[in-house]
Fold Transcription factor Tfb4.
Amino acid sequence: MDKASHLSLILDISPSQWHLSASPSNAFPLSFKTFLSHVLTFLNSHIAAMHENSLAVFGALPGKSVMLYSSTDTAEGADVVAADPNAYRPFKLVDSLVMRNIQRELELLGDPEEEAPIALVGALTKALCYINRITHIPTGAATEDPAVLIDPRILILSVSPDLSSSYIPVMNSIFSAQKYKITIDVCKVFGADTVFLQQAAHLTGGSYIYLERRDALLQYLIMSFLPPPAMRQVIAVPKQDKVDFRAACFCHKDIVDIAFVCSVCLSIFCSPVPVCSTCRTKFPIKTLQRLNASRPSLPPSANGTPRPGARQNTPLATSLR
């Protein structure tokens, strides 16, 4: 624990999903207001754990992503936060600035007829860029200085389903996090499991937790996500028993069980194609005919529609050669 820890928190702020989460028909309804109270307590715990710890909060909203708080840039909003002798100043700044900025962004959204997709990829990309900026070692700085070495990680609190068109940007973000040794943790607060975020947590050495008791959100956050990566070598953190490694095809952006992979650039397609749309490689007609004839069939999905990549008549990825 001689190194400071940086936490970049990504909040999924989808009005429609939070409306469903707060529905009394759920076993454990969780409103957005209660969710924020738990999250702010968790953020204060991270700040109190070590004086040098830093924090950044990003919001993934419909159609856009914004930075809600940064511990390195608090001067802009600090002057509007009233002094409170009964409150610790850093805690007061986090609570006030995060709540004020979320309220402002929700007011700017208005009441659209159709909600745009959540910009989770944009928030994840901004978090990676921010970490790259604050972890850049200045010229001549001593790399052994604990104040210079920062242990970065990203925590995503998700309530929205997967967006198949974001598969490639998400994978690029995962590869960037792997290169810079950034751990990505995921807490699925509401909704079905997300395939892409499962892969992000698994490939970066993070934890993926599906919240079964949403009324115990704060306990999950403190017990599972408060310890920094440096401490995870000596404590047991929850890990995934099974990881869904399905991918989205490059042609229709659908998550597929059976895929055909270009042997040159490894692009993924739900059906054999004569020309790869990525690298423009042409494939022989006989190969396409053979693949179409040998393509296995899958049972229809729950709603009766054929699965992507299945012929209308054993998961397998076939290389186009």
Summary: The two ends are 52 Å apart (CA to CA). The mean pLDDT is 82. Residues 89-109 form the longest helix (21 residues).
